[in-house]
Amino acid sequence: MCQKRAIFKPMTDEERQALKLKCGGSWKLVLRFLKAGEVCTRREKSQAIAGPGHSIAVTVKGAVYTFGANNLGQLGLGTTEEEPRPQPIRSLQGIRIIQACAGVARTMLISDAGQVYAFGKDSFGEAENGAVGTKHVTTPQLVESLKDIFVVQAAIGNFFSAVLSREGRVYTFSWGDECKLGHQTEATDIEPRPLLGALENIPVVQIAAGYCYLLALACEPSGMSVYSVGCGLGGKLGHGTRTDEKYPRLIEQFRTLHLQPMVVAAGAWHAAVVGRDGRVCTWGWGRYGCLGHGNEDCESVPKVVEALSHAKAVHVATGDYTTFVVSDDGDVYSFGCGESSSLGHNAVDAQGNRQANVLSPELVTSLKHQVSEPIVQISLTNSIYWNAHTFALTESGKLYAFGAGDKGQLGTRLPANQPEQCKPVRVDVDLS
């Protein structure tokens, strides 16, 4: 059964045995590791990524379309011109992309051969609003420093980037002060550094990067677990404190809750997890109600979102003070800051003013009414410097967008003087 998995097939016997040893000496645990990674990142399936001002769409066959802001070449189209409609990256013809991620003016793509392509801002660790490193790349370029690592996922945070290897090893670029990610490097460093500490011998199936912190979903013999590292401001590391962690530390609260984490999401200042039983936990900075607990309080350890007890969640996405949850029947719930119409509710009060903040999960009825099939993935902007937009992807590969569209990031032209789209609109791109 392991040999049927796409990532396992090209491994040598030596590499397979090493993975087996890392997974606890059992082929059954290897299979669990492989399948968990496929589910978390939609590997080998269509995906949509709502980046800061620009967007990426990947088809089932691995073709890539980009649109939106392009001031530093982050669309990979060979130009720096803004694109309001999805455009294929033709220079990648013949290369199958299985995963993508977006940061401010930067894009990273992962091929089925484990190679990483990057374009846009030519820095792995530049702060989103920093002026360091003005060089830019307008077409996908192979990241030479990763050529000896078979990569299956990438994540872009603020001040750093991270990649995950086929064997479940995490590597980070930049922001390597010993007080931050446990290694000493410069902001312009282009060499990947292995994440040291507790995860050196535990395989990771998914990584998620937020504002100056990283979450890792790990596959241990005793079950799935979550580790966090980086800045602890707002309690977003989940350890009951607000202190920083320079090495990955186990979030122990999931054991107390008897919850097996299956999907992890890192927002700018808060985080979320979906458990095997469909429960959703959130923690971190609760501003605007982004934790879904009916208030704006911070939570320094994961807390179950009780208002979602009637639904079995399968997917969660987090942004800048916003959260989306997808249930097993394809319904979508959202909560938090609704500026730019990125929550999809478009609610108004008695005076006709829009109610921006949603403190508890609410069904996104605009999707329910407009989309006739289940939603399988939500992606939303995870940046504190950009107005947010949101994508909803259906089972058959139809893509819908709403929220901020001032740079063309929705994939459709908005009427003059209309900077955002309140209701979901179909994006003219076929991801099947």
Automatic annotation (TrEMBL):
UniProt keyword annotation of Repeat present: yes
Pfam families: RCC1_2 (PF13540), WD40_RLD (PF25390)
Domain RCC1-like: 46-378
Keywords of this entry: Repeat
InterPro entries reported in the protein's UniProt record: RCC1-like_dom, RCC1/BLIP-II, Reg_chr_condens, Ub_ligase/GEF_domain
Keyword Transferase tagged: no
RCC repeats: 62-113, 114-167, 168-220, 224-277, 278-329, 330-396, 397-432
Taxonomic superkingdom: Eukaryota
Protein name, per record: RCC1-like domain-containing protein
Organism: Kalanchoe fedtschenkoi (Lavender scallops)
